[in-house]
Amino acid sequence: MQIFYSPSSPFVRKCLVTAKELDCFDEIQLLDSSAHPIDRDKNILKRNPLGQVPTLVTYKDESLFDSRVICEYLNKHKKGNLFGDDESKWDILKEHAIADGIMTTTTLIRIETQMRPTELEWKDLTHGHFDKICTSLSYFEESDEALTRPINIAQITLACALAYLDFRLPYFEWRKDFPKLAEWFNVFRQRPSMQSTEFHLKS
């Protein structure tokens, strides 16, 4: 298998952590790519009309995207249980969606505050994005089950989302208001799958 990859994408990292937890990372070749909303990578576009990472090429030469689809494919490929059983499945999928939303919203804040010309920044929108992140973090802070279930796709996504907040918005001191979540993250981030997939910028 192959995956179009960026070392600074939280959605790519979610897939890589998932692959490591399922013990299939060594089956995947990382394809360096330059996904960009304006200067789009033609190599990705040949496989994915959205031109985004991650994009997975399967053993059957099929292209799969986005990260939610890729992670479910890998889970099925390895007969894993990262998406829960009949009793927990829908809660895990709901929490997966919330954690995915944190990553998406963090990306939107970065675009608005770091990539858009300063005179065009919509500050009220940025404040709304931060509020969305805070209400999402509150959900996990107040949910014992979400943080104590056996490892699952929602927890993997949440850990990648929190790491991405630290990576892209280091001034956002979320740990002060969400101490239980911070304690959980400090433990989860020590997993080998997280340690070996740290974010970094291309040199």
Provide tags for this entry:
203 residues, alpha+beta, Glutaredoxin, Glutathione S-transferase Yfyf (Class Pi), Chain A, domain 2, four-stranded mixed β-sheet, 6% strand, globular, Thioredoxin-like_sf, Glutathione S-transferase family protein, transferase
What is the H/E string? EHEHEEHHHHHHH
The order of strands across the largest sheet is 2-1-3-4
How many beta-strand runs?
4
The biggest sheet amounts to:
4 strands, mixed
Shape field: globular
> What is the CATH-assigned architecture of the largest domain?
Up-down Bundle
GO molecular function, one term: glutathione transferase activity
Domain GST N-terminal: 1-82
GO biological process, one term: glutathione metabolic process
InterPro entries: Glutathione-S-Trfase_C_sf (IPR036282), Glutathione_S-Trfase_N (IPR004045), Thioredoxin-like_sf (IPR036249)
